[in-house]
Specification:
The protein is α/β, with parallel strands linked by helices and about 290 residues long. Among the domains are: about 90 residues, Winged helix-like DNA-binding domain superfamily/Winged helix DNA-binding domain (Arc Repressor Mutant, subunit A, Orthogonal Bundle); about 100 residues, D-Maltodextrin-Binding Protein, domain 2. Helices cover about 45% and strands about 25% of the residues. It is built from eleven helices and twelve strands. The strands form two sheets. Strands 3, 4, 5, 6, 7, 8, 9, 10, 11 and 12 form a ten-stranded mixed sheet that branches. Helix 1 packs across helix 2 and helix 1 crosses helix 3. The chain is elongated, with a radius of gyration of 23 Å.
């Protein structure tokens, strides 16, 4: 059984897009060429990798999903081989695909990418944004080379970038809190607005330890929404200090009690297995944060 790597590359793109037309456009080849490559790969493997469902369109078979994961690993290994060779020739090139949540993309990535490009102009950076849970999923199925996510990091290897903690932002009408050193979460547990951002596990554990009821208060998806709700006196915003620093506002910020902390770090299946380009990007990223 001889497998054509080009057919495998085409299959990865089709498996990700689940659309022949879109895959052909991104690969700059014709639709018939894409269909033929998939057919040849299926013949080579004697497997059906894709099926067409009249309700859901193009779908991966169960074995197709397994092959897609392995094909991504093979692409990664192929890229690593070329990058090792290029490194030896003092010409590091290729691509690093990174999963990042929005606050990291705003606060850390611009400076890190700029510094990296100045050192490695031949390496392309592809940044994909999502929540910490989404990023962990992308690392798991190797959609990205590395991810920047919030703790807990298990089951992945991780390298710490920085520590973060939760803070409160005070609505204009809460005059009694303006002179306080911190906001007691138990006292104001009925008036809290939460912003999702990867700290939910740490927050739940802290609430349990201090016997604070985690009520179904307002919960929003992004910092901008939380800021607007606090401005309109809908409650006290609870958000990570790192995330808050990425959003301009004029509200008063206070520490909270009990304190809720989390770590932010780079995650990967194995740092020994990632490409030289990804390893170099991590070095630049950590140096920029420090």
């Amino acid at each position: 059984m001889v497998m054509n790597m080009n057919h495998l590359h085409i299959f990865v793109k089709v498996g990700e897009k689940l659309n022949i037309t879109e895959a052909a456009k991104e690969l700059f080849i014709s639709q018939p060429a894409v269909s033929k490559a998939i057919k040849n790969l299926e013949s080579s493997l004697q497997l059906k990798l894709l099926i067409r469902d009249k309700h859901h369109g193009l779908m991966l078979t169960d074995v197709g999903k397994e092959i897609l994961l392995l094909a991504r690993q093979m692409k990664g290994i192929e890229s690593k081989i070329y990058q090792v060779a290029n490194r030896e020739n003092k010409l590091l090139s290729g691509k690093v695909k990174i999963g990042s949540f929005p606050a990291v993309s705003t606060n850390i990535m611009p400076q890190a990418i700029a510094a990296f490009r100045s050192n490695y102009p031949l390496i392309r950076i592809e940044l994909v944004e999502g929540t910490s849970d989404q990023i962990k999923g992308w690392v798991e199925d190797r959609t990205v080379d590395i991810g920047v996510a919030a703790s807990p990091f298990e089951p992945f290897e991780h390298q710490l970038l920085c520590k973060d903690y939760m803070v409160a932002v005070i609505p204009p009408q809460y005059d009694e809190l303006k002179q306080e050193k911190h906001v007691d979460l138990k006292t104001y547990q009925d008036n809290l607005i939460f912003c999702k951002g990867g700290h939910e596990i740490a927050m739940s554990n802290t609430f349990q330890q201090h016997r604070i009821e985690l009520k179904e208060n307002l919960t929003v998806q992004n910092a901008e929404t939380l800021i607007n709700m606090v401005k309109n006196n809908l409650g006290i915003g609870i958000i990570s200090n790192f995330t808050l620093s990425s959003v301009p506002h004029q509200l008063i910020k206070k520490d909270i009690f009990p304190r809720i902390t989390r770590d932010i770090g780079v995650i990967a299946h194995s740092f020994d297995e990632i490409t030289p380009a990804a390893q170099e990007f991590i070095k630049v990223l950590k140096a920029d944060v420090i």
